[in-house]
Every structure is written in C-alpha cells, then in structure tokens.
Specification:
By secondary structure, the protein is α+β, with helices and mostly antiparallel strands. Helices cover 42% and strands 17% of the residues. It folds into 2 domains: 166 residues, Sandwich (Jelly Rolls); 96 residues, Arc Repressor Mutant, subunit A (Orthogonal Bundle), CATH 1.10.10.60. It starts with a strand and ends with a helix.
Length: 298
C-alpha cells in the first residue's frame, strides 16, 4: 500500500487531537504519523493492518498505536457498495510524545512510559479493564480543557496497569518499516487493494504479478522484500482473520466458513488456522464463547 505521512491538526486551545468520526467507511490510507494514537471502533468491520500485522476488526476494538507505526483500518468491501446504509464510527485520540513536556519523565509515570514504548508495536486491549478503558475514551469528545487532559492521563495510567494477558501485540518484535519509493508505493497499493477485494476467490500468482506489472518470479522476491512475508502468507492471514470474525459473529458451520473465507480445501483451512493461531477453528470458537459468557456473567 502507498505509505503516506499524515499531518495531525490540533485545536488552538488543545495540545492533542480528539476526533469522533461517523463516516460511510474509514477512508484514511496506509499512513503513519509522529503522534501516538488511541482508537476505539464503535461501528464497522474490516481488516486492520499495523506494521507487519494483519487481522480482522469489529465493533469494540480498542487499540493504542505507537509513534511512527504504519497502519490502516480498512472496511469490508460491502461498505463501498452503492446504496449501502452501513456506517463506520470511531473515537480517535492523537498526541505527540512530547506534548506533555517532561511529565512522562517523572518517576510516577514510569508505567506509562513503558506502555508508550511497547505501543511501538501496537496493542489491542481485552479483559476486565477494557470496559473501563472504553468508557474513558468515549468521554473524551465531550470534555474540554483540563478535564480532557486529566482524562487522557487517567486513560494512559489505566492502560499501563493492564496485565499482559489482556493485551495483544500487533506488529512482530522484529518489525522494521521498509521505506518505499513512490513507484513501489503505487505498486504495493494496487496489490493490497486487489487482494482485499478478491481474497475470497482463488488468486493466481500470474494474476497478481500482472497487477504489479511484473513476472511471477520477480514479484515473489519483490513482495517478500517489502511485505516481509510471502504473498501466500499475506493472503492466508487475511483469510484467517476473516474466518475468525465469522466464527465469532455467526453460527455458520466451520466447513461453510472455510469456503467463504476463500479456502478451496477444508484440510488446508485447518492447517493454516493452526499455523497462525495454534488451535483449531472449533477450539477458537469455543474459547471465545466461553470467555464472552464468563464476562457477561460477572
């Protein structure tokens, strides 16, 4: 995808940005910015790209994305269909690492400082603390001045206190962004967009290489260099992410989900699922439903 630098604007009376967005679909491109970003997805489904991570998202997703981490929240193709009544809604907070001066250098803020360093990979939050974190994010657009600043500091403090088992780190530990030239950005953008619109179908190497205006052998080397994974790994990650959402959000059979996610053979679906998640689709669905039931019972 074409990587762009996003300029974040703040109001004259504020040192950081708070946005409440309600749009037909999330329209930000693959981008990065010096600011740390906290985002809550209120409405919308799709695929999140963060560094070298690819995963599905749905309403309720809450994340902190560190300074300079390339990312994009890309809605499903159905959001772009003519006449669609679907909407995407988010609350976004963006602040520069230096917005509070030396405040985060104080001994009392060491936990927040550690959180911000770990956020360089991107973090999704789960567990018992998530409901409280979500409530604080939702307050932000209606607050002003010192109350808004205090709420942000409290939010970061609460995030810093979450247990490691309540976090999902997004980009891999060794992730390093590979700078792209203008031509490379355009080419990768075409490839990503094509895959996002056709991952439920069979995508031949010849077809996608043609989209990139390259021969298959050259394309394989090129894609691995810039995406830091093979093209087949990339497609399978998107398919598995979509399958996970269907396992959680629908009562469809595993066989039907396998087919809808673009896998021609159920045996390959099981193999790829275990490779990425280290459990079977049945175990994944049971684990989610058990956790969800336990939280609702509290």
């Amino acid at each position: 995808m074409k990587l762009t630098l996003e300029k974040v604007n703040t109001a004259p009376d504020s040192s950081f940005a708070v946005e409440h967005n309600i749009v037909p679909w999330f329209n930000s491109p693959w981008h990065f910015h010096p600011e740390t970003e906290i985002i809550l997805i209120e409405q919308g489904t799709g695929t999140l790209f963060a560094g070298d991570c690819i995963r599905s998202f749905s309403p309720g997703a809450l994340a902190i994305l560190g300074s300079g981490l390339p990312h994009v929240w890309m809605n499903d193709a159905v959001y772009h269909q003519r006449g669609s009544s679907l909407v995407a809604e988010s609350v976004v907070i963006k602040f520069h690492p230096s917005f509070a001066g030396n405040f985060f250098e104080l001994p009392e803020t060491v936990a927040i400082r550690t959180l911000l360093k770990k956020a360089s990979r991107g973090i999704l939050f789960y567990g018992d603390m998530k409901q409280m974190l979500t409530g604080k994010v939702r307050q932000m657009p209606s607050l002003h001045g010192f109350d808004r600043l205090l709420c942000l500091i409290e939010l970061l403090g609460c995030m810093a206190r979450t247990d490691e088992n309540e976090r999902e780190y997004l980009a891999s530990k060794g992730y390093v962004s590979v700078p792209l030239t203008g031509e490379d950005s355009e080419r990768m953008d075409k490839v990503y967009k094509y895959v996002m619109n056709h991952f439920t179908e069979e995508i031949s190497l010849e077809k996608i290489a043609g989209i990139a205006s390259m021969c298959p052998t050259s394309f394989c080397r090129y894609f691995r260099k810039h995406a830091r994974k093979t093209f087949s790994q990339f497609v399978n990650e998107i398919r598995i992410g979509y399958a996970c959402r269907l396992l959680i959000e629908t009562g469809l059979s595993v066989a039907e989900i396998s087919y809808r996610a673009g896998f021609r053979y159920q045996s390959n679906f099981f193999k790829q699922f275990k490779t990425f998640l280290r459990m079977t689709p049945y175990e994944y669905r049971e684990k989610y439903w058990t956790l969800n039931h336990d939280r609702e019972s509290v």
